[in-house]
Every structure is written in structure tokens, then in C-alpha cells.
Predict the structure.
Amino acid sequence: MHQDVECYALNTIGSSSSLASQSVRVPAVYAFDPTNHVLIMEDIGTPPSLKDFISSLPGSAGSEKVISQVGELLGSYLARLHNWGLDVPSDGIGEDVLAVFRNNMVAKNVCAERTAGRLLATAKQFGIEWNKGEEIVQVMQREIKENDETFNMGDFWYVGLEWLEVSTILTPHTGQGIYLLNSKGILLGPSMFLIGNLRKWGQALQISDNSWERHIS
Amino acid sequence: MHFRSKSNGKALIDSFIGSYQLTRGRYSTIDIGPVVRDAGAHIAVWATAVPWGDEESTKSAVSAGFELLKAGASADRDVIAQSAFAELIT
């Protein structure tokens, strides 16, 4: 199922004129054999990961400018992906496209478990009083599984742009832009959580600078 | 300067969010409660799942995560206004 969704996502996104970009794109699919689980994709070589690419920049104000350009490209692309998901029914592609991602229950269940599955046990472990815990956990998991607002790229969504993950899904290809390499986690979900995930790290900075440094090292 | 430095991380986050919100345009309305709730949940759980720090700093992160989670679940704008999510309040 994962491979089916990935193939469908790559073909659908790759052929959308709304998302066409020379700077950010997905690899082309050349062939897919669902019986034998073989997916033949565009060979993008072995470019550096985003993490390695940015880490290789010299320590200067110019580096921050490059990083900001990368952030702008990715932010704009994901916003267009979210808007495109809202416009799909009028984009000539129709409900069939939405259904594939709406029914990506593997990704939805993973998101629900990652986000809320361990909350009650964590509260108990750390002695945190949480009278409405069970009720809130149920609401959170239901929203993840039933809120089908728009396209969400799984690794963009609940994992967000965390540094350790970004290196595995985004690859800047020198002179050819950035490839999004993980499309099997695409599902329908609320777009707003992306912003929450990013701002979360701002909050983490406020909690403990030292812990933040250790966490991302 | 390193990619994982706070200044570089902030540059990436700020540029990403600025560009994202600008491009979203008419779809940019954000329901702040669930955003804060789920981000708080992620902080609370993530701090126990990765080598976050010593016992005290892990406990601090978990507590802060649950504080956010509760504030988001009850849409407590006073608490949210003191957090990194303040700018999302409309």
C-alpha cells in the first residue's frame, strides 16, 4: 500500500501544472509493478542531503541568506501543495485523487499514534495531573483520522522540518533545485499543524537552550 | 556556523513560515487551539523519546509540553500569548 500511494503521489504531483517548479520537485516515475513491488524512478544521483549541503556552507552572513532562500522555496512549495489539495475537485482531477490519499490509513494511524498514542503513559510517568486526558487523546486521534482538509506530506506534517528528518526527505541537487523524496506518507489532513510543528521548535528553545543543543546534536 | 546552530535553524523556520503564509493567501486562517495542543503533545512525548538531556531537563520539557497541550485544548489565549505561538493568535 505504501508503494501504491507513493507512486500515485509522485505521478499526481509531478503532473500538476499548479505545482510545477524548477526549484522544488519530485522524481519522475518511469514504471511501477504493483505485483512485484518494483518502482522505477528518476535517478537523481547522489546529491548531498539538505543538512550536508547547508553544513558545507562557509560561516558567513551569506550562508544565512542561502538558508533563507531554501526555506522560502520549501515554504512556498508546501503552501501551493496545500492550496492545490483544496482546489483539486475543480482542477479537473476530481474526487478519485482525493480518495487515494484520504484512504491512506497507514499514514494516518502512524500520525495518530506518534502524536497522541503515548500521552497518557507519559503523563503518568512524570506525575502530571491531566483530568481530561483520555477525552483529549480521543479527540486528537479522531481529528487526525477524520479531518481531510487537504494534502499533507506526512514527514512535513507531524514530524515537520525537524533537522534529523529533513535530511532524509529533502535533497538539494546542485543547480537543479530540491527534490522531495518521501511521498508515501501523503494523506489528507489539516494543514494548520505544519505551522504548529515549526513553531514548536521556537518553544523548545524557550524551554532549555542546553537541552535543545543536545537534542539536535 | 553549522546547520544545526540556532541561528541557522531560526533562519530556515522564519523564512519557511513567512513564505508559506504568504503563498497560502486566502487559505491562511489558523485555528490556534489545535495547533498549540498538538505541538505541546509532540514536545511532551518527543522529549522522552530522544536523548533530550538530563532527567531534570527532560521533566521540564515534558511539563512545558503538557502546559501547552492543555492551553491549546482549552484555547487558553493567556497562556498561548506567552508562548512561541503568540504570533499566530488572530
